[in-house]
Amino acid sequence: PVKGYTVKGFLWNQGESNVGKHDEYPHHQKEMVELWRKLWGNPDLPFYFVELPPWSYGDGEGRWAAYFREGQHKAAEITPNSGIVCTTDLAYPYELEDVHASQKQPIGERLAFMAAARTYGIKGMPHIYPQYKSMETKDGKAILSFTNSTGGLNPNLNLEGFEVAGDDHVFHPATAVEDWNNYTITVSSPEVPEVKAVRYCFKNFAIGKLKDMLGLPLVPFRTDNWDVNDATTAKPHNEP
Q1: What are the tens digits of pLDDT across the range 107-139?
Q2: Beta bridge partners of 132
Q3: Which of 11, 111, 113, 174 is most exposed, with the fewest beta carbons within 10 Å of its own?
Q4: 164 within 8 A of 198, measured Cβ to Cβ
């Protein structure tokens, strides 16, 4: 119904009903963007969207939403002139069962920052999020490197949200320590003698506290490509 109106681009915030469809979502999202751009007769209209915020989905320890968030970032990767803002830090502990969490203004600000920097060319706007880059193992521990983390990550101590697993694919809470000179994080657990995989905030509901020096949160990630059935999961939610 708004086809033909003058627009500079699109800001898009949704996803709850698509949880459980993480394999097909990236391509459907890309197709939707292509359709909208065709309707407006402009193949380059920017499209910026929002990572699904933390919520229980019936089981806060489940991982369906985590796989979906991963799919959202894949959608951004395969869709030209698009971007996604991270929201893993924008929930309060008491909002475990509140799908409409209260921190809407920061989401809007992050979208505005991205549009200001990428579409309007305003310099100095924080809009590029720190992300997992690579992992190496040494003495049974995992050493993680990151992109877009020049200057390191905060807080310097009490790094929460990390899990590790060995060959059995069973994840345990991990201790994480930052190397302030190399901007790496070493992760380990006494329950896992040889770490094979690391996950960070890779659950339906996990509040991420790690941020870069400009206050943008570390994107949730996993270093493994194990099948979804290996993880503790909850049934997808059908919230419209």
Answers
A1: 999 999 999 999 999 999 999 999 999 999 999
A2: 146
A3: 11
A4: yes
